[in-house]
Amino acid sequence: MFVKVNGIELYYEVVGNGRPLIMLHGNREDHSIFEKAAERLKEDHTIYLPDSRCHGLSGNPEKLTYNLISDDVIAFIEDLKIEKPLLLGYSDGAIAALYVAAKRSDLLSGVIAAGANSHPKGLKRYVYRGLKLKVLFARDKYDYLMLNGPHFKKSDFERISVPTLIVAGERDVVKKKDTEFIASSIPKAKLMILKGEDHGSYIVASDKIADIVEKEFPVSQMEK
Prior knowledge:
By secondary structure, this protein is an alpha/beta fold. The chain has a single domain (about 1-215), classed as Alpha/Beta hydrolase fold, catalytic domain (Rossmann fold, 3-Layer(aba) Sandwich), CATH 3.40.50.1820. It has 8 helices and 8 strands, in the order βββαβαβαβαααβαβα. It has helices at about 35-40, 65-80, 90-105, 125-135, 140-145, 155-160, 175-185, 210-215, and strands at about 1-5, 10-15, 20-25, 45-50, 85-90, 110-115, 165-170, 190-200. The chain has an 8-stranded mixed β-sheet with strand order 1-2-4-3-5-6-7-8. The chain is globular and about 45 Å long.
């Protein structure tokens, strides 16, 4: 299915029935990374799986920024009249989810941000330097996206007023210090560092994130 938001066509799929859950993928990916988790969660959740702008089957405009991605998500929620969804984002999708929450917490019931960084230098040094080298040889908007953003301030995180879970792998590409900064800056946030996991091992083609959703944001009998 497609919906037009902010002048572009966003592709999305919907599976399941129950509490609304939106899942946002990362850089150079599409909604299919969540297939295993969605299969686990669909009994109790209506799961919305959009492809971000410039990804998957969605429109591919020239401009790609975290603010634009988050504005697309806000418009997506409003246009489809999704009532108080739980918003789960991974990597770039986690950054977008935090921007959505900072701008419009009133639209959400909660946030799970997995593998987010607060600024480019929140990435480990070898990742950040690798991005800088790559853009010297190729003009790639996906690399530029990560090199030029995000730029969160503590005050941005302080505006998030819904329960928030900040997740990272023990061997994540995001510095642990930056992950801790994000979690400590959000009033209702909980931090979870997953032993033995890297940046995406518990999400991409995995159902491990489903366990976290079910444990940390359980669906009550009334919501089923």
